[in-house]
Design the sequence.
């Protein structure tokens, strides 16, 4: 009997919890699920913003409550309140100073829907329930609600935008171009801190990886400041490349770095990889071909106080690898006290072209044959690329190997999908350890030719690849 009673009590408690959850979730309505709260249908197709045309008057359920008991009653109504931009759902009753008016969501259309038992306990009865008029205007809707009402219903609406400091960046499809001025004005009005709205005019296809911008609305001021993963950056958005959608990828790579590690950034931009690496007290050498990126990289290094452990260059990526990386890598590998413990990372974030630079590592240390026999951690290369069409990891790997001119699959660390860039175009990161047979290509060929079989290198000799 004891076990039976316990079971029945637990079942009763479970049923109460389920009913409580259903009751709470049942009354959490979305405004756009209610046609009364939509902007007027007459605004559909508008290309020049006319805020006056958004005015509409609707009937709305209301509840009168005693002013002195409002703190007790309002918690009972929190899931039933009307929640819209610049509308106070609770306000004094101008006809009776001892009362307050509570605006309810249109779907709370009668007394039976409200928690009437709890309200009756507070002496709030059905007589307190009424309907009143409410005027809605442009100010009362969010940006996505207005754009959904205005833009064509039979085609894809504006799905996303990026905010970089005070700049809002959109990438409008052709069918939205007739509405571009309106879109700019709505976004500037509705997005906090936005003063400039721009549209990307062309694809990123030039040497410096920036793109043409079209000002849709606001100030023609493209020098901005933003913050990513706790680090501040400043730059001219019209002259450098910056994509806030890569913040997670930047964080993933940087979080694996530790004090004293070596980090080479071949296509550094304004520093989203290299500056966080320097702040982790890594030894960082960063490079970018774009003079504007280099200028702002210097600004950001100084602003984040990373000068002591960071060098920066303004060079072609291949020259940077074959001169700066080669010289510095050889120097650090000669430091026998640190060679085995310091991990080496090389980041190549230029997805449209980075794979074309991988052959620069072939024979990079041929003129330093004495380093080949030393024990050191193999460099971990992060190379980014775009893949078009139906992508899979084998396709990505083959693409990188074809461009590199050597096999990496035996030294592969990871193939990681970064993001979808466009329909049928994805961005990937391929991470692999750069083996000695690539860095010392000619040295090892000469060794194989000159050594007798009994003097062949020990194949079981371990090399640190643990990152």
Sequence:
């Amino acid at each position: 009997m004891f076990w039976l009673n316990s079971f029945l009590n637990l079942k009763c408690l479970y049923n109460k919890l389920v009913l409580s959850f259903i009751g709470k979730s049942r009354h959490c309505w979305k405004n756009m699920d209610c046609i009364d709260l939509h902007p007027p249908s007459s605004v559909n197709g508008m290309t020049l913003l006319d805020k006056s045309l958004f005015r509409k008057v609707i009937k709305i359920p209301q509840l009168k409550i005693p002013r002195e008991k409002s703190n007790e009653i309002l918690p009972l109504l929190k899931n039933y309140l009307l929640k819209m931009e610049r509308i106070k759902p609770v306000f004094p009753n101008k006809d009776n100073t001892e009362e307050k008016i509570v605006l309810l969501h249109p779907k709370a259309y009668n007394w039976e829907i409200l928690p009437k038992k709890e309200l009756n306990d507070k002496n709030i009865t059905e007589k307190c329930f009424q309907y009143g008029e409410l005027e809605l205007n442009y100010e009362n809707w969010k940006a996505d609600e207005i754009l959904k009402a205005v833009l064509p219903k039979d085609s894809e609406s504006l799905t996303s935008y990026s905010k970089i400091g005070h700049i809002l960046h959109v990438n409008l499809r052709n069918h939205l171009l007739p509405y571009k001025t309106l879109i700019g004005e709505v976004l500037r009005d509705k997005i906090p801190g936005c003063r400039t709205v721009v549209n990307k005019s062309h694809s990123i296809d030039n040497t410096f990886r920036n793109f043409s911008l079209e000002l849709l609305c606001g100030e023609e001021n493209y020098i901005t400041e933003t913050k990513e993963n706790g680090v501040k950056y400043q730059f001219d958005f019209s002259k450098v490349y910056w994509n806030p959608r890569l913040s997670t990828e930047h964080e993933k790579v940087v979080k694996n770095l530790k004090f004293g590690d070596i980090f080479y950034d071949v296509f550094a931009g304004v520093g989203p990889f290299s500056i966080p690496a320097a702040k982790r007290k890594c030894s960082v050498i960063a490079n970018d071909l774009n003079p504007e990126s280099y200028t702002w990289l210097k600004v950001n290094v100084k602003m984040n106080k990373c000068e002591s452990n960071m060098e920066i260059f303004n060079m072609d990526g291949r020259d940077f690898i074959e001169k700066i990386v080669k010289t510095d890598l050889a120097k650090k590998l000669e430091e026998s006290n640190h060679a085995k413990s310091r991990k080496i990372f090389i980041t190549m974030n230029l997805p449209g072209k980075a794979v074309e630079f991988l052959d620069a590592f072939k024979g990079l240390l041929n003129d330093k044959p004495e380093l080949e026999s030393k024990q050191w951690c193999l460099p971990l290369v992060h190379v980014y690329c775009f893949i078009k069409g139906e992508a899979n990891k084998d396709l990505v790997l083959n693409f990188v190997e074809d461009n590199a001119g050597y096999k990496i699959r035996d030294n592969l660390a990871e193939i990681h999908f970064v993001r979808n860039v466009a329909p049928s175009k994805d961005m990937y990161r391929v991470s692999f350890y750069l083996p000695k047979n690539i860095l010392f290509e000619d040295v090892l060929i000469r060794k194989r030719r000159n050594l007798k079989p009994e003097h062949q290198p020990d194949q079981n000799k371990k090399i640190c690849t643990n990152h």
